[in-house]
Amino acid sequence: MPMLLIVTFLLLFYALYTAQNAIVRYKASVTTERAAFNWGHAGSEFGTGAYADGRYDGLYWRLTDDALLQGLFGWQADESADTLGYPDTEDPGERLTLRKLYPAAEALGTNWRGSIGYERGALSREIRTSAADPGELSPLASLRGSAVASAEASSPVTEPAEWLRTFDLARYYTARAAGQSGGSKPYLDKAGAILSRKSG
């Protein structure tokens, strides 16, 4: 009888662990997708995506956050700066990418710990989230080694119009630089300096 009771409790704990894992995975996925959906407007309401009329992000902010243009103009990307940890989320300051991630970190940080980040490549950009429930079922942990419910989620940032605009800008400057008598590098350095000032 005691063995049957122990097995019953272990099965109950395992069911609770599985349910908590599903909750963490669902919440992490939904929060990641909302962050990706709201990416075009830093001031949008996190739950609905609504934003105040006439309130937009600067026209050139993406220039320093797109690897396609960074490679063209020789800019260095600060990848480590585009991640926020929670629940002890630091103030994002003036960096726009971190301000866009901040509402998602706050939403997850009310119950769990982890991080949310923005990863960019030459042709793709995505939001990546890791979340874990700090609580642990001790009886189950003694059998499994760990009983922390955790999950990871990712969602692509899709802005078709902005992607085409960036691609056309890169194509334009590549063609112009190729026709410069003094070489392409001085021309791209000069153009990059002008665009960098506009994106600030």
Summarize the entry for a quick read:
With 200 residues, the protein is α+β, with helices and mostly antiparallel strands. It has helices at residues 2-37, 67-73, 96-109, 138-144, 160-178, 184-199; strands spanning 83-86, 113-120, 125-136, 148-156.
Q: Helical element count?
A: 6
Please mark out the parts with pLDDT under 50 across 5 or more consecutive residues, or reply none: none
Strand content is 15-25%
Label the structural class: alpha+beta
User: Which shape, going by the Cα principal axes?
Assistant: elongated
Report the biggest beta sheet as strand number plus sense, adding barrel if it closes: 4 strands, antiparallel
What is the radius of gyration computed over CA atoms, rounded to a whole number of angstroms?
A: 23 Å
Helix content: 40-55%
- Please report the distance between the alpha carbons of the first and last residues: 71 Å
Question: Which strand order spans the largest sheet, edge to edge or round the barrel?
Answer: 1-2-3-4
For this structure, the quaternary state is: single chain
**N to C succession of SSEs:** HHEHEEHEHH
Q: What value does the average pLDDT take?
A: 77
